[in-house]
Amino acid sequence: MFSKHIGIYFGIAAGIAASVGVLAFFLAAKYGPALIPSIITPVLSATTASLLALFLLKEPFSLFKLIGLVLALSGLFIFIRF
After folding, report:
1. What is the number of other CB atoms lying within 10 angstroms of the CB of residue 47?
2. What is the pLDDT of residue 15?
3. CA-to-CA distance for 51 and 43, rounded, in angstroms?
4. pLDDT tens-digit profile of 12-58?
5. How far is CA 33 from CA 17, 55, 71, 76, 78, in A?
6. 21: which residues sit within 8 A by CB, 6+ positions away?
7. Does the global pTM surpass 0.70?
8. Greatest C-alpha distance within the chain
9. Do residues 24 and 57 lie in contact, with contact meaning Cβ atoms separated by under 8 Å?
10. Where exactly are the transmembrane stretches of this chain (predicted)?
11. 2, 10 in Cβ contact below 8 A?
């Protein structure tokens, strides 16, 4: 699907994105309650992975997957708001 060279670029971009994410996580935990970034990080990671699989890998999308994404994001919103 992808050539070897573009895979290297994706790897470098993933490393940079992961570094920025870890730095943002530590800053959020330092300046606020550590519970909030601890809950946001895995939910948004799973959501991002699901959307990337849908758009880049052309994974089939079903109502069951949509309900799962909506429930995960709704739960995150409810937990943070209240």
Report:
1. 15
2. 94
3. 12
4. 999 999 999 899 988 988 888 888 888 888 888 888 888 888 888 88
5. 23, 34, 24, 15, 16
6. 41
7. no
8. 47
9. no
10. 6-28, 35-57, 63-80
11. yes
